[in-house]
Amino acid sequence: MAHPLVELKEVSKTYAAGDMRIHALRDVSFQAEQGEFITVSGPSGSGKSTFLHLMGAVDAPTSGEVFLGGLEISRLSDEGLSEIRRKEVGFIHQFFHLMPTMTVYENVALPLLLQGRKRAEIKEMAENALARVGLSNRMRSFPRQLSGGEMQRVAVARAIIHKPRLILADEPTGNLDSGNSQNVLELVAELHKEDGFTVVMATHDQMPLRYATRRVGITDGRLEEGC
Ligand SMILES: Nc1ncnc2c1ncn2[C@@H]1O[C@H](COP(=O)(O)OP(=O)(O)O)[C@@H](O)[C@H]1O
Ligand SMILES: [Mg+2]
Known about the structure:
Bound molecules: adenosine-5'-diphosphate, magnesium ion
Largest sheet: 6 strands, mixed
CATH architecture: 3-Layer(aba) Sandwich
CATH topology: Rossmann fold
Number of domains: 1
Helix content: 25-40%
Shape: globular
Strand content: 25-35%
Order of helices and strands: EEEHEEHEHHHEHEEE
Number of helices: 6
Number of strands: 10
Strand order of the largest sheet: 6-7-8-3-9-10
Distance between the termini: 30 Å
Structural class: alpha/beta
CATH class: Alpha Beta
Low-confidence stretches: none
Mean pLDDT: 94
CATH superfamily: P-loop containing nucleotide triphosphate hydrolases
């Protein structure tokens, strides 16, 4: 039987902060089918990033089960998580996370270089990813020579270079002006619609919502459908 791409079953995540325990996620159950574009809205500190990190094999839950592509990932070691993450997930962050001393091409190729793939294969994949985001002509530039919108497009190319099944975007427009935000959102929407990527995007503004096939919200670590 087909399984959802992502499944969380009664997942909680707590963090220790001195003597206190912070309940970042409380008893969250959730499924994402292949091909969905889901937005996750909620105020700062509500648990959006934690939610994305758990489904994206960045971190493990305190309790409950997480499945990615039908495989349980909630009890994996850090090494096991990173192996799954490198294969299945592409991350887009609010602050781009580009390496300032590397060119655009090197930044995009980096995930594959770390996997020890063949140089010719890496070149072809990096060139394809950069063409997909419209930055073929900026391959030799450094991040500081780009606008914020262009930097985020580089980060998008890096996220899709290995053709992951799941794209996780954590407030990808949070650091962009409205024109660049629009461009980045349209690019992600195209990747969903034309290239078939499944997207889960955290946001605290309203703009991305119209691209979504489904919306959920998080308040104080609790998930609600249809926000
Ligand atoms: N590594 C961590 N250590 C301790 N507390 C954390 C950690 N990561 C997140 N938190 C706390 O968990 C809660 C949810 O955080 P987060 O998932 O980052 O929310 P959001 O992305 O919605 O802003 C917040 O109270 C935050 O301070
Ligand atoms: Mg966050």
